[in-house]
Amino acid sequence: MAAPFDTPSLDTNQICPTRFNKRAKGVAFDTVLFHDLRFTPQGAEQPNFVLNRDPYRRAGIMVAERNFGCGSSRESAVYALLAFGVRALVAPSFGEIFYTNCLKNSLLPVVLDDAICARIRNQLHGSPGAKMTVDLQRQVVRDTTGADHPFDIHPLRRQCLLDGLDDVSLTERYADASVAFERQYRQQFPWLTKPGNYPPGSS
Amino acid sequence: MKPTSHRPQTLLDKVWGRHQITEVVGEYLLYSDYLLLHEGARHAFDAMLASGRTVHRPDQVLACADHYVQTHHRSSGVEAIADLSVRGMLERFERNAKAFRLPYFGSSHPQQGIMHVVAPELGLTQPGLLMVGADSHTTTHGAFGCLAFGVGASDALHVLATQSLWMRKPKIMRISVEGALSRHVTAKDVVLTLITHIGAEAGIGHIIEFAGSAVRTMSMEGRMTLCNMAVEAGALSGLVSPDQMTFDYLHGRQYAPKDADWDQAVAYWKGLVSDPDAHYDHQITVDAASIAPSVTWGTHLHQTAVIDTVVPDPQNFATGEARDEVASALQYMGLTPGTPLTSIAIDRVFIGSCTNSRIEDLRAAADIARQGKAVVPAWVVPGSMTVKRQAEAEGLDRLFKEAGFEWHDAGCSMCTAINGDHLAEGERCASTSNRNFVGRQGRNGRTHILSPAMAAAAALTGRLTDIRSFG
After folding, report:
1. Which of B20, B22, B415, B423 should be substituted to probe chain A, the one whose Cβ sees the most A Cβ atoms within 10 Å?
2. Is the ipTM of this structure higher than 0.85?
3. Residues B114-161: pLDDT tens digits?
4. What angle do CA B104, B414, B459 make, to 5 degrees?
5. Does B127 share its domain with B224?
6. Which residue range forms the structural domain that includes residue B221?
7. A202 contacts on B by Cβ (under 8 Å)
8. A161, A187, B30, B287 — which has fewest CB within 10 A?
């Protein structure tokens, strides 16, 4: 199920209003997504908001406009999308930090041309509930007419997503290089780690 | 170490190369000198605790309470905060900072403040470093000629665990501002004008290096304002190569290198300039004299105009999409096309944020404030308690209070508006912060972004005001 979002530059504060940042990741975020667009100040649903209309209530894919997720680095924007059930986003461009946050949380961000995104959004408006798919293995988005649109994704990121490998586990494979690097770096810039050149730790 | 490249290098190349641990199909594992965290890092700490991992280099992490701290009644202590969710964030942050033995600047620390004000003023931000912060305005530190990136909780966790970060190498764009800035035109006006000129997405995939004679004559605080808002042009960071202004700023600061180390550090820092024939992916030059005092009118940063012009008319925009965007912004902001900006009445003024809350910003605002009396609530929130004490030593607090402004303790306050300081519904605020987005300063709050002097002028007149009329 895919939902179209036609507004450009939907920033992370709209995706997840700042006051919800305090919540722990997970189920606490399930009503947070686009909260202030989705609900009135009194908490009633805004009937015209796309996610409040059938069939979009169960959207697992969002097809958006450019600069989706610009603004703050808060990862809670991604938690809100995940808690709602979104698994993939398609847009002409994303806020950079947001794009990375998606990858690190197994929410697949797909960049497709402006024109293709617009076409797919129109398809979804025209046929609510029509099926589309996002295939990471083949790196292809199949729109509601069955047409395939290839997308780019960094090969390392694609592999980590497919393998379910988090970054720290990936980095642990390079432990020797990291240790050697730090040793020579500290020799080269000794003042950085000299006592008195950084604030003391708390206890 | 990588062999020296014979290709001319940008400053980005040089600093990136110094921090490169390894590379995998174009993703680089980079060593991070510092990780900056504020209370919002709870998700990173939650994940650390859940995974049982230890912090690799606690001494290279800085925990600064800034987003949720109270900016008034602070002396009553965190325990006295009525909003339990705010109090909970501060207490959780302190627990985590202490559990992991991190350098911790909490509410009661004498040097507490906004992380992007504190690290530079303590001499921690230095040329040639790679700094990572769990905050999008980490770009601020690029003003010192270091690479400074904002990240989310997952990357923050990775840096906590490994003191390194996976990144793809960005492109680099150079924006040169040439000539002299006119009187009353500040770094804030420069960066607002640049964003309006290039758009909010031009910087995506890029670091913006700011150059040119106007940038060279800008103080470190002005350069920090520029780099702070590079993120609003979509950029991964801002960058200014270090020079004597940088070295003079750092010399003698608490955590800057000292004695023989100082000489060694400066010798290294002097090499941190882009080679003359280095390749840039994109370059633009802007005439400094063409930049005028500006203010945002809409709900995106590129919706900025010179103060002595009028609210734009959607009909004058070329495409349907542009017309819709303008119309939508004007509807939210409650503005009518053709209205002179200087006739727009405001409900309150906020002088603060990591963009403009340092001593020079406060001096500029005080210089205007002393000329009258505030006719709307006007808050001055220094960027750190150190800045606050310096301002008090200079008598600025007295000037502000005599003019009817409120003098606060340091913190992010009404910029991100999550500590209890926020606009009421529909309130219009002249703010020195960095985002005028829908709901940023409070649900249905209306934000106009401008420079500190312009904010102070607006406080005295009760409307957006052309600072040039103040002489």
Report:
1. B22
2. yes
3. 999 999 999 999 999 999 999 999 999 999 999 999 999 999 999 999
4. 130
5. no
6. 171-244+274-290
7. 63, 97-98, 101-104
8. A187
